[in-house]
Automatic annotation (TrEMBL):
<dbReference type="Pfam" id="PF13536">
    <property type="entry name" value="EmrE"/>
</dbReference>
<feature type="transmembrane region" description="Helical">
    <location>
        <begin position="268"/>
        <end position="284"/>
    </location>
</feature>
<protein>
    <recommendedName>
        <fullName>Multidrug resistance efflux transporter family protein</fullName>
    </recommendedName>
</protein>
<feature type="transmembrane region" description="Helical">
    <location>
        <begin position="158"/>
        <end position="177"/>
    </location>
</feature>
<keyword id="KW-1133">Transmembrane helix</keyword>
<feature type="transmembrane region" description="Helical">
    <location>
        <begin position="290"/>
        <end position="308"/>
    </location>
</feature>
<feature type="transmembrane region" description="Helical">
    <location>
        <begin position="136"/>
        <end position="152"/>
    </location>
</feature>
<keyword id="KW-0812">Transmembrane</keyword>
<feature type="transmembrane region" description="Helical">
    <location>
        <begin position="228"/>
        <end position="247"/>
    </location>
</feature>
<feature type="transmembrane region" description="Helical">
    <location>
        <begin position="198"/>
        <end position="222"/>
    </location>
</feature>
<feature type="transmembrane region" description="Helical">
    <location>
        <begin position="39"/>
        <end position="56"/>
    </location>
</feature>
<keyword id="KW-0472">Membrane</keyword>
<feature type="transmembrane region" description="Helical">
    <location>
        <begin position="68"/>
        <end position="90"/>
    </location>
</feature>
<feature type="transmembrane region" description="Helical">
    <location>
        <begin position="96"/>
        <end position="116"/>
    </location>
</feature>
<dbReference type="InterPro" id="IPR032713">
    <property type="entry name" value="EmrE"/>
</dbReference>
Length: 326
């Protein structure tokens, strides 16, 4: 239960991303600065945390040993994740982006065959290639139905072009985030803790954010003071607290694809947290009945997804113990 609890806490702090990105867009801020400033501001906070724990040396060793892998998968896991999310904020409200973002649960399930999981046998732990959790995937399709219902309602009020510009970037982000995260878990192999891994990926993604910042200076000018402050809040709440909580939760279930899928499913709570935040602080129009129903379907799908994964884990546990008895 602890990984699930940490995942829900991460969802709460991740919701600040969607709320504050929407606030920055409404005030005229560019997505370029919303994306780049978050990761630039994350660096000093994470360096202090990892430095106080005395773990900087091990991290820098890992970065030196595998620089290409760190640069590539950090670009995928952080760059192709966050830049598209910030871009989408200009075309959809935060709660809708948060809802569409839940398709990452399906993306994570479809990525399973690309990785190996550890299975306990009579002869000890054995690594086998992961299989798509089809039962969990069926439950994930319920989440997809909820997303479609929300997008259908939204499409009544905006053009098809705006709908696509709000959806396609989120789809890219939903695939990039679990792919980059899982690849870095495989590369690190438990040698680094969650704080070290987040700092390492942040440092490795800095070339992208610096280039994006330079582009922003010449195209949209410097960010306003308000956007700078809000980006700092996103860096602390979402970039540091939420990311570390989520990475810690995924580290706790590393090697078990069913448990990993359950932790990733907790991110569905972002929809509810984001909507509450936007209603309280941004005074957005109350979503329609169809949108509310879509959100309800998303959350029900998340709960059912976790339940199916739990049943599967119990069957695996009993099966393993029968094999031991043999």
């Amino acid at each position: 239960m602890r990984p699930i609890f940490l995942g829900i806490c991460a969802a709460f702090f991740f919701a600040f991303t969607f709320i504050l990105n929407q606030a920055m867009d409404l005030s005229g801020g560019s997505w370029i600065w919303s994306a780049s400033l978050r990761y630039i501001f994350m660096v000093p906070f994470l360096v202090c945390i990892v430095g106080i724990k005395g773990n900087l040396k091990e991290l820098f060793h890992e970065l030196r040993v595998r620089p290409v892998s760190w640069l590539l998968w950090s670009f995928v896991g952080f760059g192709l994740f966050y830049a598209p999310l910030c871009f989408a904020a200009a075309y959809s409200p935060g709660w809708l982006i948060a809802g569409t973002w839940q398709i990452t649960i399906i993306s994570g399930a479809l990525l399973t065959p690309l990785f190996f999981e550890t299975v306990e046998t009579i002869n000890g732990p054995v690594k086998i290639r992961g299989k798509i959790p089809y039962k969990g995937l069926v439950m994930s399709l319920i989440i997809l139905l909820g997303i479609i219902l929300m997008q259908l309602e939204h499409s009544k009020h905006v053009s098809l072009e705006n709908v696509l510009l709000g959806v396609i970037p989120v789809l890219i982000a939903s695939l990039a985030y679990p792919l980059g995260n899982r690849k870095m878990m495989d590369i690190c192999m438990g040698r680094l803790d969650a704080y070290q891994r987040v700092l390492g990926m942040t440092l490795a993604s800095l070339p992208l954010w610096i280039l994006l910042s330079v582009y922003g200076v010449f195209t949209v000018g410097l960010p306003s003071f308000g956007q700078t402050i809000q980006s700092g809040l996103v860096a602390i709440c979402s970039g540091v607290i939420a990311t570390v909580l989520f990475f810690k939760a995924t580290d706790m279930v590393r090697g078990n694809m069913q448990k990993l899928a359950s932790v990733e499913a907790t991110q569905s709570m972002e929809v509810l947290f984001t909507l509450i935040g936007e209603l309280l602080f941004l005074s957005i129009p109350n979503p329609s009945l169809l949108s509310w129903f879509g959100m309800f379907v998303v959350i029900v799908g998340m709960v059912m997804h976790s339940y199916v994964a739990q049943i599967t884990r119990k069957k695996q546990f009993l099966g393993d113990h029968r094999n031991v008895g043999i």
